Automatic annotation (TrEMBL):
Pathway listed: Carbohydrate degradation; glycolysis; pyruvate from D-glyceraldehyde 3-phosphate: step 5/5
Organism of this sequence: Archaeoglobus fulgidus
Stated name of the protein: Pyruvate kinase
Catalytic activity: pyruvate + ATP = phosphoenolpyruvate + ADP + H(+)
EC number assigned by the record: 2.7.1.40
PANTHER family (alphabetical): PYRUVATE KINASE
Length: 463
């Protein structure tokens, strides 16, 4: 399977048995959402992920989503069902959820909210119209039958608010979790400056996680090229995109983001409502199957399950179905990228050269990478031949797990050539390379001298 899968963790998937089952069924990474839960809860989930890795002999990338400048309801104990036409008060203080006075701890935005504004919650399923605003409270009428849940995000349609990108809560949580994160899910990015703010903070606290930028705001679409350039990976966050733009715009926006990410050469992930019906049902809908297949044919690196695995009744079955759809689609279709339109840096041209060399001679490609940089470029080209990667540590390997077609092997080595020979020996001994196969062996582009080897496998003793 070339396309990778990520599962979001939550109440439905918090047991070590479920985490291990999802990893065994084909998950390459797990997402932890800092909008829900506590430090103790998140550390427990990470411990269970590591236990599953050890048990199954498989690594998993960890994506930690920060809250960012999002607007969210406060904490309250139960789901509230609100009939259409009801008046709900979203209050900074003096809250009483039983009386539909819902905590909304974002009083700094109240002055920019107007009567008539539309509030959207729960990926747009809950809609409210503002009927009154004070310094302490926003009063709104439910336009639909709504379910209000603790800590759910809120969008005011067509509006944005000038809030600091990194809040104190995110900063404190990242200090605690910094050594476990492979990617930081950067929520509600508005500009490349937001990404640089986060990157500076990560550097200051000694966190080497990469940044997965979530495209979900109007400002992000306006600044799309610069944001993709500044990111390490890109996520199409269809939930908030649908609330900010309207559902009918999501397919066009998804296509634009995916195409631009592939053109620039950044890994791209699609999330939200991948198999939404499986929150309550053991089988996906035909529309969901088609949606997944189309994403695979577009050439995305990764598909991310959210509510399906976090709060759904069938988390393992959702993973199983997603893998099944991906594998079947990949059997018939190989995504094509326009390599000529991709970024033209020397390193990217070198990656293109070795990939096309291996393709032209109908060989395999074997790469040893110390930091994984070259592997990102290789994966972005969507090689049409088998591509084998080895790296010196689990930390590097986990960052590569979300890349299309890359399944890194950890082989410690003191030099690139030693690593390449260890990788070759492993491929021959494991049967991945057999007598008569041709393999191109190389490593990341160096400043002074570069070695590319072409080797024909003669027999097992070659290793």
């Amino acid at each position: 399977m070339k396309t990778k899968l990520i599962a979001s963790l939550g109440p439905s998937s918090s047991s070590k048995e479920t985490i291990a089952s999802m990893l065994n069924e084909g998950i390459f990474g797990f997402r932890i959402n800092l909008a829900h839960g506590s430090v103790e809860n998140w550390l427990s989930l990470i411990e269970k992920i590591r236990e599953a890795e050890s048990k199954l002999g498989k690594l998993a990338s960890i994506v930690i989503d920060i809250i960012g400048p999002s607007l969210r309801l406060g904490d309250f104990p139960e789901t509230l069902r609100v009939p259409a036409g009801s008046i709900v008060e979203f209050c900074f203080s003096d809250c009483c959820w039983e009386k539909l006075r819902i905590p909304f701890p974002r009083s700094e935005i109240f002055g920019n909210v107007s009567i008539g504004d539309i509030m959207l919650l729960d990926d747009g399923r809950s809609r409210f119209k503002v009927v009154d605003v004070s310094e302490e409270c926003i009063k709104a009428e439910a336009l639909t039958n709504c379910e209000l849940k603790s800590r759910k995000s809120v969008v005011f349609q067509g509006k944005s608010f000038d809030l600091p990108y990194l809040n104190a809560e995110d900063a404190e949580n990242l200090r605690v979790l910094k050594k476990f994160a492979d990617y930081i899910g950067a929520s509600l990015v508005r500009s490349s400056e937001d990404i640089e703010t986060l990157r500076r903070f990560l550097k200051d606290i000694g966190c080497d996680a990469m940044i997965m930028c979530k495209i979900e705001t109007r400002e992000a679409i306006e600044n799309l090229n610069k944001i993709i350039d500044a990111s390490d990976a890109v996520l199409v966050a269809r939930g908030d995109l649908g609330m900010n733009f309207g559902l009918e715009e999501v397919p066009r926006l998804q296509k634009t983001i995916v195409e631009k990410s592939l053109e620039i050469g950044k890994p791209v992930v699609i999330a939200t409502q991948i198999l939404e019906s499986m929150i309550d049902n053991p089988v996906p809908t035909r529309a969901e199957v088609s949606d997944v297949a189309n994403a695979v044919m577009e050439g995305v690196d990764t598909l991310m399950l959210t509510g399906e695995t976090a709060v759904g009744k069938y988390p393992v079955e959702a993973v199983r179905w997603l893998r099944r759809i991906v594998e079947r689609t990949e059997f018939y279709y190989t995504p094509l990228v326009n390599r000529e339109q991709m970024a033209k840096s020397l390193k990217k041209r070198y990656a293109k050269g070795v990939v096309e060399l291996a393709e032209d001679i109908n060989g395999a490609l074997a790469i040893y990478s110390m930091k994984g940089t070259t592997v990102f470029s290789i994966a972005s080209l969507r090689p049409r031949i088998n591509c084998y990667v080895a790296v010196p540590s689990e930390e590097v390997a986990r960052k590569l797990l979300i890349l299309w077609g890359i399944n890194p092997k950890v082989l410690k080595a003191d030099s690139y050539m030693e690593g390449l020979e260890k990788l070759y020996a492993h491929l021959v001994s494991s049967g991945s390379l057999v007598k008569g196969n041709i393999v191109v062996l190389t490593y990341g582009l160096k400043d002074r001298e570069q070695i590319v080897k072409i080797r024909v496998v003669e027999d097992v003793s070659d290793s």
